[in-house]
Amino acid sequence: MIKFIARRVFFSIPVLVISSFIVFWGIRETFDPTAKYRTSKDATRLIAEKRKELGLDRPIVVQWWTWATRFVRGDWGVSASTNGKVTAMTSRALGFTVQLIFWGVLISLVVAIAVGVYSAVRQYSVADVALTGLSYLGVAMPPFWFALLAIQFLSVEPKLRWHLDRPIFYFVGLHSTGQSGFNMDYVRHLVLPVLTLTVQTVAVWSRFQRAAMLDVLSADYIRTARAKGLRRRQVIFKHALRNALLPLVSQTAVDAGALFGGLIITESIFSIPGMGRLFIAALLVGDVNVILAWMLVGAVFVILFNLLADVVYGILDPRIRVQ
Amino acid sequence: MTLSDEVAKTLSNVRLDEIIEVMPEADEGDLELVAGAEPVPRSQFQLITRRFLRHKAAVFSLLMIIVLLVMCFGAQWVAPFPQNKQDLLAPLAGPSRHHLFGVDQLGRDYFTEVLYAGRVSLKIGIAVGLLSTVVGFTAGAIAGYFGNVIDNLLMRFTDLFLVIPGIAVLAIALKYFGYRDVTIILVLGGLFWMSVARVVRSQVLSLREKEFVEAARASGASSWRIITRHILPNMLGPIMVNATLGIAGAIVTEATLSFLGFGVQPPQSSWGKMLSDAEGQIGGKAAYLLYFPGLMLLIIVLCVNFLGDGLRDAFDPQAKH
Q1: CATH number at residue A190
Q2: With an 8 Å Cβ cutoff, are B248 and A140 in contact?
Q3: pLDDT for A123 beyond 70
Q4: Are residues B130 and B260 in the same domain?
Q5: Which CATH number does the domain housing residue B104 bear?
Q6: Do B19 and A218 touch (CB under 8 A)?
Q7: Smallest CA–CA separation between A31 and chain B, in Å?
Q8: Domain of A257?
Q9: What are the b/e assignments for B31-59, b being 16+ CB within 10 Å?
Q10: Do B123 and B206 belong together in one domain?
């Protein structure tokens, strides 16, 4: 198992090296970190000084190599816009992002599995048809528009209509000022962003779960289980569901990257200071250290999700347990 | 009650369609094996068209897409007002008979603005869909057919862009080449072709082992001829479905990027850009500005997805979804 994990991680290194170089190069070509000194007195001298200090006078490969060796040693440099340490910024932002992903994935999975199993067991029922229609809507819904509508209809409108002091669901940050920890305030902040994150995943995953469940329900061993007199509930949850979870596990892993990317929208709209917001702010000004940190943390996240999927796969299906 | 009774009872409680996947309805239009009747000969194209026309949602979606295309690209004739015409006395007037979608902050008729913005959104979406299909097909076919080195190269290249964020590529390209529609189209096309290439590659891998390809090769057909005359027609279905879904994906991607400020720039507008401009109206009296561009996005994507479904069923009636 450990050997397998080590091999997977090892093989992803070249991709990370090359992609970090491409992005480093692209940002350096298009954004000039010394642009902010152009208007200052004595600009030519100051810019030349700063260029030397930042190492911009050296070849791009050397610049990248300097960044890479420092990055590996844990020195991720400073942000060009705030001068703050990138490691500190990243770890602070990562906290918010991990919370969103945790709740997003958890709720998506629970809802998608419940909906998928229900529609499969009651195939072509009214509920199944309605849920199918909803999933079409969910797939086609642009997430950022959904977020705007959710703010309008679930937060602002009710507040105005019923003359509330505070909206039922907040849409800025994850805590009110002075609040922390897991409490009602947190939940009221969490509902709208998590809803935004889950719309598309629930729509796609529930269809996936339904198809997988239908597939399994038509298998011979299910007929055998039913024929020998097992209860319907037992057959569905013990025999069928466990096998029907397999495709969803790999789908979840595949969608992990999309989830991490989707945070850019959610965090921007709901003003949550997580990784996505950090990344967008950095991209606007070409803050290369922050951009690369975001990219590599995202890559590690995707790799971890894939590994997790493989482990869960092994637990669910002993036949394909890795050696 | 004996055991066999019990088994019989259990079996009778089990609904047949829960256990046995119901066979797709026999396509009576394909064969028309009515006793005594002469079978009607039909070409492959006719069969596909007949199956497509039977998919009601897809046909309706196709009509809807055509209507939207005509309205947006014929905006100079369809729109009730000239583009950018301001009525300074009535900014932010709500939807009415006169102004179907209301009036925006600058006093422009919002319906007109939505149509003109739709041009940009649809143009980018369709161009990206076509570009990525052509490039993806070429790369996928070469990789699948000639295998090994090129194949490996393609797969590694695809891996690379799983890590490099598309939005960063777009930001760099827009900064480097300056803002133009073509830049957005090329960048999105450059990111979208890889998934097409993967589909094509896997199809080609299985098709090239088929007997008819072997027969063609035995009779001396060139690789080019085999790919274009024997393999391409056999995978037209998946390619068309992918191209359609690619268009939907490109429209949403463009809208999202424009919303975040990394896409269409003023004075150009697209549905995503309009939503970005209207974001400040949340909770205000002009919240309607948020509804219409998003609604257009939702409708077009929904229709394109249904169209893709219809095409898949038409080309491959046995496919399960």
Answers
A1: 1.10.3720.10
A2: yes
A3: yes
A4: yes
A5: 1.10.3720.10
A6: yes
A7: 8
A8: 2-31+76-322
A9: eeeeeeeeeeeeeeeebbeebbebbeebe
A10: yes
* Chain B touched by A102 (CB under 8 Å): no
Q: Is A8 in contact with A303 (CB distance < 8 Å)? A: yes
Average pLDDT of every residue of chain A: 85
Q: Is A132 on the interface with B (CB under 8 A)?
A: no
A136 touches B: beta carbon within 8 Å: yes
Given a cut of 60, whether residue B28 has pLDDT beyond it is no
Residue B10 pLDDT greater than 80, yes or no: no
Interface test with B, best of A11, A144, A284 (most B CBs within 10 A): A144
Q: Looking at the structure, do residues B70 and B159 belong to the same domain, yes or no?
A: yes
Nearest CA in chain B to A297: B163
Closest partner CB to B164 (pick from A19, A149, A227): A19
Q: Which residue is associated with the tokens 């200052």?
A: A40
Find tokens 């998934």 and name the residue.
B195
Share of chain B above pLDDT 70, in %: 87
Give the mean pLDDT of A39-57.
Answer: 76
A116 within 8 A of B247, measured Cβ to Cβ: no
Q: Cβ B165–A136 below 8 Å, yes or no?
A: no
Query: Pick from B171, B282, B302: which is nearest to A136 by CB?
Result: B302
Averaged confidence pLDDT in chain B: 81
How many folded domains does chain A comprise? 1
Q: Do A264 and B172 touch (CB under 8 A)?
A: no
Q: Quickly count: other Cβ atoms within 10 Å of residue B284's Cβ.
A: 14
Q: Residues B130, B246: one domain?
A: yes
Cα–Cα distance, B166 to A167 (Å, whole number): 36
Residue-level pLDDT at B238? 83
Give residue A148's pLDDT: 92
Q: What angle do CA B152, B154, B157 make, to 5 degrees?
A: 110
Range of the domain at B14: 3-41
Residue A260: closest C-alpha in chain B? B165
Q: Domain tally for chain B?
A: 2
Q: In this complex, is the C-beta atom of A141 within 8 Å of any C-beta atom belonging to chain B?
A: yes
Whole-prediction pTM: 0.84
Same domain, B12 and B160: no
